[in-house]
From TrEMBL:
Protein's name in the database: Ig-like domain-containing protein
Family annotation (PROSITE patterns): IG_LIKE
Signal peptide positions (record): 1-21
SMART domains, per database record: IG
Single GO MF descriptor: phosphatidylserine binding
Subcellular location: Membrane
Ranges where the Ig-like domain occurs: 17-129
Stated family: Belongs to the immunoglobulin superfamily. TIM family.
GO biological process: apoptotic cell clearance; cytoskeletal rearrangement involved in phagocytosis, engulfment
TM region positions: 209-229
């Protein structure tokens, strides 16, 4: 009797449901697919199934997410959980759209097979992690690095622009040096001309002096001539 009971128990357990599972990892915001399949060789093999949270119970699904009659989805408790596979070919994989951290946990896939304790069940662990944020700071180029190749041209340009700013008193000293280019000599000449124009009173005083000396000479000559005549 004991041997008979043991054999019966062994047969009962061997014909029980097959439990398998997988580990699925993803990041927040991604679409995650939890695989689940069953064999469909003919139309009669198409059957109902369900997805639920937590490990598979003795029957049905705990905290049911979605139900299908094998041909189409009949119940859906959250729009983010979908069956995008070909149901008629036995692809009942669960797709989690825009995954969240709260979606992490154990998921049960139960395919209902005719007969006692023939359901195909599988428990899948889902891990949803936060997306990594890069902390590397962007490289900032300084003005010195940016203008390194053009420093010579910029300095010569600055010197050229400073020539018109030389004052009249400094112009003769600047002109005494050699000219680096024809444009520099032209700038110095124009500065000298401008210096002479800026002081017309000096020219007027010199002309008056010359006229006074001339008049004195004429008067002196007339006086000497008058003395000789007398």
């Amino acid at each position: 009797l004991y041997a008979l009971c043991s054999a019966t128990t062994f047969v009962f357990l061997s014909t029980g449901p097959t439990v398998s599972g997988s580990l699925v990892k993803g990041k927040v915001g991604q679409n995650i697919t939890v695989p689940c399949f069953y064999t469909v060789k003919r139309t009669q093999d198409i059957t109902s199934m369900c997805w639920g949270r937590d490990s598979c119970p003795v029957s049905k699904c705990y905290q049911t997410i979605i139900w299908t009659d094998g041909w189409k989805v009949t119940e859906q408790y959250n729009s983010r959980y979908m069956l995008k596979g070909n149901l008629l070919m036995g692809d009942v994989s669960l797709t989690i759209v825009n995954a969240e951290e709260g979606d992490s946990g154990i998921y049960c896939c139960r395919v209902e097979i005719l007969g006692w304790f023939n359901d195909q069940t599988s428990n899948h662990k889902v891990v949803i992690e936060k997306a990594r944020i890069s902390t590397a700071s962007p490289h900032i180029y300084t003005s010195e690095q940016t203008s390194a190749h053009g420093s010579t041209s910029e300095s010569s340009f600055t010197i050229t622009r400073t020539w018109p700013l030389v004052s009249a008193s400094e112009a003769p000293q600047t002109a005494s040096g050699p000219c680096s280019s024809a444009s520099d000599c032209l700038d110095v000449t124009s500065n000298l001309q401008n210096a002479s124009v800026l002081h017309p009173s000096q020219q007027y005083s010199e002309n008056g002096l010359y006229i006074g000396i001339g008049l004195c000479a004429v008067l002196l000559a007339i006086l000497i001539l008058a003395l000789f005549i007398t």
